[in-house]
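Sequence design from tokenized structure. All designs in this work follow the same two-part layout: the structure record, then the generated sequence. An example of the structure record is given first.
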């Protein structure tokens, strides 16, 4: 579990996609649930954007920063 930062963006994307897919198949076929599915997909994209890419060892590939 120490390397969770290296996979955080992937985990957020998979969880968001899974919930969006589950909502699409489990929800009734109404206009409100269609918009909810779209909103959830947008929220997932925004969440993936804001989760930083972090290497497993915590170092940046450009080297030490001053």
């Amino acid at each position: 579990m120490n390397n969770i930062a290296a996979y955080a963006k992937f985990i957020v994307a998979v969880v968001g996609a899974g919930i969006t897919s589950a909502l699409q198949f489990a929800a009734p076929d109404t206009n409100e649930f269609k918009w909810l599915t779209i909103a959830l997909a947008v929220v997932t994209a925004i969440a993936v954007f804001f989760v930083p890419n972090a290497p497993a060892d915590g170092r940046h590939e450009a080297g030490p920063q001053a």
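The first helix runs from residue 4 to 26. We note this feature because it recurs in several other targets discussed in the main text.
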